[in-house]
Every structure is written in structure tokens, then in C-alpha cells.
């Protein structure tokens, strides 16, 4: 299968769709791999010959040693965790530091962002990862953020931290009546120690991306429904985790992406971590089964993920608003033993049938899913690598997903392992062969 020289991989649900596995697999054919939004809230799992890697800040494609990895300007970077992650991967025999670029315009996550995250959660729970992501973006947009380039000037860095700490202290004490104490000297010293380890990677990443002739894979973190503008606001992350974030997050002009291919990754069912509406959530035994069979526990926080049937109304929203060219469907194998499999094709909201994704969280909370039911295949597809291994019932399921969303399912994943996947050929996708 020939993919475009510029490829964008996005999560098409609420995150944890299996992007890590897919990006790892596809980055074998790309020279540059880029993360451009979010931070260590992400947890991207890759399994290679039974060895597990979980990436939080580094682009997943960095596991291929021929790639250049880029942490672009739209990310918020916790240097302490980044250094830990680099050391961890290097300890497994994969070099990182000599082929990593970090944008000088990326913002930093510092310890007080995490304090604020915890405090905000106490005052109104979103169920964040407590990695300081929201507060780092909050201060960025309030023009109080601190960027990687500020670390070159120690005095400037110190005074920026001091100002931030005064602000956070006032917020904590005067607004939230909570105690707060953190020493600027300690924050500065620790951060500069970590900076020393990666400072040779700091670069003008946008210019590098603009001028390189290499093939580039852009790795979205989180998922479209967690996007701050088109997700289930306010139960979202604080960045544009949809295609909307690409240009601002990389510093590349929108035109740059006109010849890019966009693929959205979706599970064959649905999960969500944290609070917020989830119309197809199953709070019963079936949901429990999905969690157990899918191993649905957070890669970053270990929290059990909420599980439910695939929501095609939400998936079509993701396809349309992101201009997706195709869907990569993961974890098909998790559905193997179900007798009946359902997909949501509309919602009933206050006696009205709606087949578009509502903006209002209060409407979404009231949405009752209207399901179409499929007979399960009750055959083992775990680890399948050929379209011939797919039972007829699974093919019907795929056919319906592509008809409903209007885009082809281009690839299937059937196990956590790197080499367990199926490309669906053009004929299969348009329906004249197996899937038709
Ligand atoms: P990401 O955040 O989108 O990269 O996804 P996570 O890594 O947080 O969660 C996806 C989980 O599903 C990981 O444990 C993967 O190893 C696992 N996984 C990915 N693809 C498949 C698949 O096709 N089948 C099964 N059974 N597990 C998968
Ligand atoms: P990957 O890249 C799933 C969720 C949190 C919470 C909300 C806000 O692995 O798919 P934040 O810490 O970002 O302020 O939390 O977003 N969330 C994720 N859920 N996968 C992720 O990343 C997520 N990153 C954030 O659970 O509901
Ligand atoms: Mg994840």
C-alpha cells in the first residue's frame, strides 16, 4: 500500500485508539516523525516481539532508528519526564538524543502546573491525567507561559518562574483558599539540570519541517472528541487534538498539508477515560467484558477505561471535521467472542431522533443511542494478517462502518504486536471483493 509523503494519523474517538501501534508500524516508511500537541497526558503503547514500550512525550516513530523525531511548538513539555523517557528508551538499546529536535517555541510544563491541575480537579472534575497539561496551556494563552527558548537565559528564566509562582500562589490562596509554597530556585535548578541533557536537540523545528525534503508522519495525540474546540467540551483536553491543531502545532502553513493523507484510528468499539458524556457507554457485564478482553486500563494513569459500543455518529463527526481519507480500525479481535455486536447510528434526544453530533454537553448527556445490531463472528481473528482470515460477519461489520462514515476502512489491527495487521486492498475497500 503506497501512502502519501506526508501522512497525518489522528485518534478518531476519545484517545487510546491504538495510535501508538499504528504510528509505529507506518513510521517504518517515514523519515521524520512529529508530535505537535498535547504532552505527557498521552500514552502510546507499542509491542515489538513481546517487548512493551509506552511513549508519552516522544513521537512513537522514534522507535525506528532511521527516523528524525520532532517535538513541535504546539506541545507542552515536561522536561523531567522527557529526560526520563529518553533514558528509558536508550536503556533498551535505541538511540534517541542524536536524532531528536525540540522546538524552541514549545511551552514547558513545570511542577506548579501540576499543582494547579490537581486544584482545578478538586473544584470541578474533568478526570484529567494530572500532568499539568490544562494549566500549561492556560498560562500559554494568558501570555504567562515559559518556552524552551527561555531556558537559554538563566536570569530571564528565573524571573519568569518567579512571576508564575506569584500568580499561582495568589490563585491558590486568594481564589481557592488553599496553601501553596514552591521555591523558584528549586524549580529553576532542576529544570536547567534537565535542559542540560537535551539542549543540543533544541532547534527551529518549523523551519526544519518546512525545508526538509524528507517524508513526514504527523502523530496526533488524544483524539478528535477530546479536541478543545470540536470535542465534548468542557470534558476535553486543552489542545486541538483534531486536524485543526496541525498548522498551529507545527508552525507550518495550512497549505503545507494540502497534499497530505489523513487517517483516523478508531477501535472496533469505544472507550473513554475520565469524566464526560459517552452515549454508548455500557455499565453492565458487556462493558466489563470489553474492558477485560481489551485490556482497557490507561497507559498513562492505569485508570480503568469506560467501555461501550462503537458510536458511528461520533465517528462520522470525526471523519467529516478532519477530512479523513480513511479509517484504521483497531482491536477487532476484542469482539471475537461476542454473540451480538452493536453500533450506534443515531441518538434519541428529548423525543427527537438526531444523527449528528451535538455541541452541547447537556444534550449529549441525554442522548440515548439507537443501535443497529450485528451477529458476532465467534471466530478467532487475534493476530490475523490476511483478509482471507476475516469471517463474513466481520466483513459485514466493516462494510457497514465504511458505508455509514463515507470513507474506507483501509487497515485493521488484530493484536498489540507490531506485525499483526491487515491492509484492505482497493477492491476490498470499494466492495467488489471480500467486503462487497
Ligand atoms: P494510543 O494512546 O492510541 O496509542 O493507545 P494506547 O496505547 O493508550 O491503548 C491501546 C491499547 O490497545 C494498547 O494496550 C495496545 O497495545 C493495544 N492494542 C493496539 N492495537 C490492538 C489490537 O489490534 N488488538 C488488541 N487486542 N490490542 C491492541
Ligand atoms: P492518548 O494520546 C485518553 C483525557 C483525560 C481527561 C481529559 C483531560 O494516549 O490517546 P488532560 O490531562 O489532557 O487535561 O485530561 O482528556 N485524556 C486522554 N484520554 N488518551 C489520551 O491520550 C488522553 N489524554 C488526555 O483522561 O478526560
Ligand atoms: Mg493512550
Question: Can you walk through the features of this model?
Answer:
The protein is α/β, with parallel strands linked by helices and 436 residues long. It folds into three domains: 158 residues, 3-Layer(aba) Sandwich (Adenylosuccinate Synthetase, Chain A, domain 1); 91 residues, Adenylosuccinate Synthetase, subunit A, domain 2, CATH 1.10.300; 158 residues, Adenylosuccinate Synthetase, subunit A, domain 3 (Adenylosuccinate Synthetase, Chain A, domain 3, Alpha-Beta Complex). Helices cover 32% and strands 20% of the residues. The protein contains 13 helices and 20 strands. A ten-stranded mixed sheet has the order 9-7-5-2-10-1-11-15-19-20, with helices on both faces. Strands 14, 16, 17 and 18 form a four-stranded mixed sheet that branches. A two-stranded antiparallel sheet has the order 3-4. Helix 3 packs across helix 4 and helix 5 packs across helix 6. The longest helix has 22 residues. The protein is globular, with a radius of gyration of 22 Å. The two termini are 20 Å apart. The structure holds guanosine-5'-diphosphate, 6-O-phosphoryl inosine monophosphate and magnesium ion (MG). 6-O-phosphoryl inosine monophosphate binds next to helix 4.
Summary of the model, kept short:
The chain is of the alpha/beta class.
Spell out the blueprint of helices and strands:
Blueprint: E1 6-11, H1 19-26, E2 32-35, E3 44-48, E4 51-55, E5 68-71, E6 76-77, H2 79-91, E7 100-103, E8 107-108, H3 111-123, H4 133-141, H5 154-175, H6 184-198, E9 202-203, H7 205-211, E10 216-219, H8 245-250, E11 261-267, E12 270-272, H9 285-294, E13 306-308, E14 310-311, H10 312-322, E15 326-330, E16 340-349, E17 352-354, H11 361-366, E18 368-375, H12 392-405, E19 409-413, E20 421-423, H13 426-430
Parallel strand pairs: 1-10, 1-11, 2-5, 2-10, 5-7, 6-8, 7-9, 11-15, 14-16, 15-19
Antiparallel strand pairs: 3-4, 12-13, 16-17, 16-18, 19-20
Helix pairs in contact: 3-4, 5-6
